[in-house]
Amino acid sequence: MAMQREVGVGDFVLLDKIDLDSFMKNLQLRFKNGKIYTYIGEVCVSVNPYKTMNIYGQDYVEQYKGRELFENPPHIFAIADSSHKVMKQQGRDTCIVISGESGSGKTEASKIIMKYIAAVTNQDSFRNPSGQKEIERVKNVLIQSNSILEAFGNAKTNRNDNSSRFGKYMDIHFDFKGDPIGGHINKYLLEKSRVIHQQPGERNFHCFYQIFCGASDDLLRKLKLTRNPDNFFYVKQGNAAKVDTINDRNDYREVTNSLNTLQFSKDDQDTLWRVVAAILHLGNVEFDVDEDKLILKKGQSVNNVAELLKVEKSDLEKALCERVIAARGDIMRKEHTETEASFGRDAFAKAVYDRLFAWIVGKINDAIAVDKNNYSAQYKSSLIGVLDIYGFEIFDNNSFEQFCINYCNEKLQQLFIELVLKQEQEEYNREGIAWTNIEYFNNQIICDLVEAPHKGIISIMDDACKMTAEKVTDELLLEAMDKYLKGHKHYMSRQTKPPEKTLRHKIDFRVTHYAGDVTYCIIGFLDKNKDTLFQDFKRLLYNSKDPNIKEMWPEGAQHISEITKRPPTAGTLFKNSMQALVQNLQNKEPHYVRCIKPNEIKSATAFDEERVRHQVSYLGLVENVRVRRAGFAYRQRYDRFLKRYKMISQFTWPNFRSGSDKDAVKVIMDEKRFADDVKYGRTKIFIRSPKTLFELENARNDLIPGIVTLIQKTWRGFVARQQYKKMKALLTMVKCYRQKKLREYISSLENKFRRVKTMKDYGKSIVWPAPPRSLLNSAKMLRSIYNRWRAFMILNRIPRASGLK
Ligand SMILES: Nc1ncnc2c1ncn2[C@@H]1O[C@H](COP(=O)(O)OP(=O)(O)OP(=O)(O)O)[C@@H](O)[C@H]1O
C-alpha cells in the first residue's frame, strides 16, 4: 500500500475519477516509468515491457513470499502468492485467469507464475529428502512440458514471434504442505487451419521448422525430407519459411530433452516426427483430371505419406480420391471432384495434426499426473488452475475462429463480473455493510445470443449443417440467422438493418459484444462448423500399423454402415468445452491477470494510445474498477490499518490502551474529521473516496521523518550503551586476568625462592620463570631488587674490617 511512493496510483480503484481517460493516463504514466503492473483490487493489470526486467529474481521472490497484496508494490508474484496462500491455508482450489490479446504477455505471465510457485515450494526438504526429489521432479516436468507444447502449439505470427495458437488451462495439484505433486492440461481450439495455410509473413507451427534444422541426417532420411523447407507447400506460403537455423536447432534439442524427461518413449518420438513429416508430404500431394476421372499427380509424396503413417498406399489413394456414402441404405463409393479432393486432403492434414497435438497433450498429462501410489487419497490435495487463453480479437476480416474466441471472452468476462460481484457482496454481508446496487454490463444476453438452445447462433448453424449437404450454403445460413435473430439488440445484418451500409449484403453479420461491435464474414462458417473429415480417412488411420496412430483415431473402428452418424460440430464442441471450463472455474477462488500490449512494434518505450485504449475496453477494465469499487475505494482490516496509521494521532501513538483496534481506528478518523467518509464493518474499515486515503498517507509521510529520526536516535543510543557495557566488561575481564596471572607468577617465585636465604649461592642457580607479558616490567624490577638483595647478602658475609687490612 505504499501508494504515495508509487508512480500515479498502484491500484486503479484509487483513481479520483473512474473513466477511460483517467485509466489511460495512469497506465501510461506507470509504463513510462517502468511500472508494468497495476492492480484493480486483486486483479493485476500487466503491460508487456518488451524488455528483460530485473524484477523476477530470488530477491523479489523473498520480498513477495507470504506477504499480503498491499504490503508491496504491485507485482504478478503477489497474485501468484495470494493464490498459493489461499490454496494452502484454506485448502481451497484457486485459479489464475490470464487474458489479453496476442503478444500481450499471457504465456510469459503463466511461466512467471509457475516459476514463482516452484521457487516458494518444497522448502522444508531437509526433513524429507526423498519427498523433495519427487517434488523437484514434478516441478521440472511441469516446467519442461512448456517447451513441447510451444513446439507443437505455437507459431510465428505477425503479432508475436512465439504465439500460442491454442487456449491452455493447466491445473497444478499440491499436497497438504502446499508442494506441487502433479498437474493436468486442457487445451482449447488449436488453430489447425495454420497447418495448411499461413498469412504472408507468418509461419506454420514451430515443429515444422525445428525438424529441418535439428533432426540428424539419418532421421531426415527416414522421414524422406531434405533440409530445405521451401520444397514443401504447407510451410512455404507464409514467405516466412526461412528457418531461423540457430533458434530452431536449439529448440529442437530442447524439445527432444523435454520429450525424454516426460517419458516419451523412442517409439513415441518416432511416431511424432513421422506424423509431422507425413503432413509435410501430404501438402505436396496434387490432383489432376484425366478423361473426367480424378487422378493423383505422379510423384513420391503419396508413397511417403503412406509409409510414414504406416497405412496401405492403395487405401490412402482411395481415401484421397473418393468417399463412401450411404444412399437409401446402400453403401456406395463416390469419386471426388478436384476441389473436393483438395479440400479433403487439407482437412485430412489439419485433422491429423489436431489429433497429434491432442495425443501429445495426453502423453504430457500421463507424465505429470499425480502419482496415486505416492499421494494416497487420504492426503487432501488442492490445486491452482492457470488459464492462458486468447483475448478478444477484432480483425479487418473476422471469421468463425474469431467468433469462437470472442464468445469465449464474453463468457469469461461474464464469469469475472459475477464472481467479483459475489465476492464483494459476501464481504459486505460479512462486515454488516449495506450493499449498494451498481449498474453493470450483463454479458449473459450476448452469451445467450451465441449459445442458447434452438435460437442461439451455434444452434442455428448446427441445424443448417444437418440439412442435406449439397443444398446448404453460407448465404442460407445467414438467412436463417436473420430470421431467428431479427430484432435482437446485439445482432444485425444488412438484411435486418438495410441502412447499415458498412455491412455487406448476404455476407456480413454484426454482433455487439461487451467490448464493442464486431463484424463477421459468414463465408466459411458452415464448413468450419461442420469440420468434415471423410470417414474413410478415420478408418485409414485406425488401420495404421503404428499403434500410436491407431490410438489417435478410435472412431475409425466404426463399421462402414455407421457413417451417417454425424459427429458434433466444431461450434457445439467449443460451446461445450467453454461451458465446462466456466463451471470448473466457478468453483474456484479466482485471481486475474489482464495483459496489455503497449504497441505493435515490440518496442520497450512506445505506448500506442489508441491500441491500448481499445484493449482496455475489450478487457472491460474500467467496468472492473467500477464493480470493484462499488461505493468504497478502499477497505482494510482494523489491525493492519492501525499499524500503518497509528502514528498520526497522539491517542494511538505509540499504543492505544483504551479499547479495541476498531476503537483506535475510530479515534484516528474522528480526530482527522474523516468520519463522514467511512463505514465501520465488523473487521474492516471501508473508505469511500481515495482522497481520504491520500490524506492519511500524507499525514503519515509527514510524520515518518520525525519517527525515523527518533527511531535512529533511540537505536544509536541503545547501540552505544551496549558497546559501553561490553567495553566495561572487557576491561574487568582484562583486570581479573592480569591479577590472576600475577598471583600465579608470584606464587611460583615464592616456591622457588622460599629457601633462598639458606642456599649457598643465594639463589643464583634458580631459573626464573618467564613472566606473563603484562608483568614484564614488574618482573624486571623484582629481578633488580633480588640482585641487590643478593649482593647485600654476599657483602654481609664479609667482615667489615677485613677490607681495611
Ligand atoms: N514480463 C515480460 N518481460 C519481458 N518480456 C516480456 C514479458 N511479457 C512478454 N514479453 C515479451 O513479449 C513477447 C510476447 O509475449 P507472450 O508470448 O507471452 O504473449 P501472448 O499474450 O502469450 O501471445 P499469444 O496469444 O500470441 O500467445 C514475449 O516473447 C516476450 O518477448
Explain what you see.
This protein has a domain at 710-797. It is elongated. The N and C termini lie far apart (110 Å). The mean pLDDT is 88. It is 50% helix and 12% strand. The protein has 805 residues and is α+β, with helices and mostly antiparallel strands. It is built from 27 helices and 19 strands. Bound molecules: adenosine-5'-triphosphate. Adenosine-5'-triphosphate is lined by residues 48-50, 52-53, 100, 102-108, 160, 162-164, 390, 595.
Any low-confidence stretches, pLDDT <50, length ≥5? none
Head-to-tail CA distance between termini: 110 Å
Q: What fraction, in percent, of the residue positions are helical?
A: 40-55%
Please give the radius of gyration in angstroms: 40 Å
- Number of beta strands: 19
Tell me which ligands are bound: adenosine-5'-triphosphate
> How many distinct helices?
27
Helices and strands: which structural class? alpha+beta
Q: Specify the biggest β-sheet.
A: 7 strands, mixed
Strand content: 5-15%
Shape: elongated
Average pLDDT, rounded to a whole number, is 88
Strand order of the largest sheet: 1-2-16-3-12-6-7
Protein name: Myosin motor domain-containing protein
GO molecular function: actin filament binding; ATP binding; microfilament motor activity; phosphatidylinositol-4,5-bisphosphate binding
Subcellular location: Cell membrane
Region (Actin-binding): 578-600
List keywords for this structure.
single chain, alpha+beta, 7-stranded mixed sheet, 3-stranded antiparallel sheet, binds adenosine-5'-triphosphate
